[in-house]
């Protein structure tokens, strides 16, 4: 149980940063002139990243929900909403010791890091530095790191034959 404390720490931090990202995105929807605390310079701006088509539904749901009226609807939520759900579920299941669940958590951590690489590339294309986004990418990496560090059981297979307690040496 104690080995998951760092994973839980990163989940709490990710949850808080995702809440802030969602707060900024909602304020940006309500007021297009909104300036967030993370807007430090013209090229260091989280609102520029959040206002882009990739700030909602990872830019992937825009093709499915292409109507401009529904692009900010429940069908195309801000990316922070996905983060809130992801970190809450990962936190809630961190102490459950079930191999299949651990493998699913590990796969989710891999996917979140792949999305981080994708979104980091989008930031490069937008010529923007988003402090909130970079923080989330770091948190995603640290969650994966903790999964790798703690879950040696993912890499070992329990064979149906139990290991004997005493080994007999044959000469």
Question: What does this entry show, briefly?
Answer:
Belongs to the VKOR family. This protein has 171 residues and is mostly helical.
Describe, in plain words, how this protein is organized in 3D.
The chain crosses the membrane at residues 7-30, 80-96, 103-123, 129-148. It is found in: Endoplasmic reticulum membrane. Belongs to the VKOR family. This is vitamin-K-epoxide reductase (warfarin-sensitive). Keywords: Disulfide bond, Endoplasmic reticulum, Membrane, Oxidoreductase, Quinone, Redox-active center, Transmembrane, Transmembrane helix. This protein is mainly alpha-helical and 171 residues long. The protein has a single domain, classed as de novo design (two linked rop proteins). It is built from 5 helices and no strands. It has helices at 5-30, 46-51, 79-92, 99-126, 131-150. The mean pLDDT is 85.
Strand content: under 5%
Instruction: Measure the end-to-end span.
Output: 43 Å
E-strand count: 0
Using only C-alpha atoms, the radius of gyration works out to: 20 Å
Question: What is the helix tally?
Answer: 5
Structural class: mainly alpha
Shape: elongated
**For this structure, what is the CATH class?**
Mainly Alpha
What is the annotated CATH architecture?
A: Up-down Bundle
Fraction of helical residues = 40-55%
Low-confidence stretches: none
User: Average pLDDT across residues?
Assistant: 85
Q: What sequence of helices (H) and strands (E) makes up the elements? A: HHHHH
Tell me about the largest β-sheet: none
Tally of individual domains = 1
Q: What is the third-level CATH name, the topology?
A: de novo design (two linked rop proteins)
Keywords: Disulfide bond, Endoplasmic reticulum, Membrane, Oxidoreductase, Quinone, Redox-active center, Transmembrane, Transmembrane helix
Pfam families: VKOR
Main location: endoplasmic reticulum
Family: Belongs to the VKOR family.
């Amino acid at each position: 149980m104690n080995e998951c404390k760092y994973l839980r720490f990163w989940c709490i931090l990710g949850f808080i940063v995702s809440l802030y990202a969602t707060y900024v995105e909602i304020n940006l929807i309500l007021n297009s002139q909104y300036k967030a605390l993370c807007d430090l310079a013209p090229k260091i701006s989280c609102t520029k990243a959040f206002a882009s088509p990739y700030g909602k539904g990872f830019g992937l749901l825009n093709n499915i929900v292409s109507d401009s009226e529904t692009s900010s609807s429940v069908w195309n939520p801000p990316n922070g909403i996905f983060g809130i759900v992801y970190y809450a579920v990962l936190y809630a299941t961190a102490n459950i010791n079930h191999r299949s669940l651990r493998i699913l958590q590990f796969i989710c951590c891999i996917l979140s890091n792949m999305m981080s690489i994708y979104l980091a590339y989008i930031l490069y294309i937008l010529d923007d530095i988003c402090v909130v986004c970079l923080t989330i990418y770091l948190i995603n990496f640290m969650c994966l790191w903790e999964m790798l560090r703690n879950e040696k059981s993912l890499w070992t297979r329990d064979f149906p034959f139990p290991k004997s307690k005493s080994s007999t040496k044959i000469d």
